[in-house]
Amino acid sequence: MKKNIKIAPSLLAANFALLKEEVVAVEDAGAEYLHLDVMDGHFVPNISFGASLIKSIRPYSNLIFDVHLMIDNPDRYISDFVDAGANIICVHAESTKHLNRTIQLIKSYNVKVGVALNPSTPLEAIKYDIDNIDMVLIMTVNPGFGGQKFIPQMLNKIKKLRTIAPNIDIQVDGGINNEISKLVINAGANILVAGSYIFNGNYKEKINSLKS
Ligand code: DX5
Ligand code: ZN
Predict the structure, then answer these.
(1) What average pLDDT does the segment 30-47 reach?
(2) Rounded to two decimals, what is the model's pTM?
(3) Which ligand is nearest to the CA of 174?
(4) Active-site choice (37, 40, 66, 169)
(5) Which of 34, 115, 164, 189 has a beta carbon 3.0–4.6 Å from 184's, enabling a disulfide?
(6) Residues 179-188: pLDDT tens digits?
């Protein structure tokens, strides 16, 4: 079954001085998700924002809030992100000692659960959990920064995952533009995160170009 393509603009590339306007603008431009990159300066070599910022923009958007946690020991903060209004919480398989426990914790709050895999992490890392998760995030760059170059070897990973899990949501994140989007969609991805590509230009045109 072919899935509809959904677009998740990454707020990391927005103008932080105008966050409310930016959030409203990407919704008006046709996005379905808002991708929120939380970085702790430990799991990744960068610090971004946390639950309080997400909570402050939640009243201005009906988008699906898709929280990408790039933090060590995420269990400590799951309830904060639920309170902030997350609809999907995505944790890195590499960030938690007990991935299955983290998945169960997220599900206990009745939000959707995603698991992200760094470029070097094989699909085997989620072999025994795949039936319990809603989304797999295939990182197509090393996490931590926007504006990096897509790693082409990830296309095979996406294809393999689509064969293993025909119905799961496959999200891709990092270096996505209107050229790469064709490749990842053909490989089987159905949720496309894009930061610098969308926010440097006309949001509606950029979002449409990713879908077509
Ligand atoms: C990287 C983040 C991405 C990032 C994508 O660690 O997870 O979501 O914002 O930015 P672009 O689309 O510019 O590669
Ligand atoms: Zn991300």
Answers:
(1) 98
(2) 0.98
(3) 1
(4) 37
(5) 189
(6) 999 999 999 9
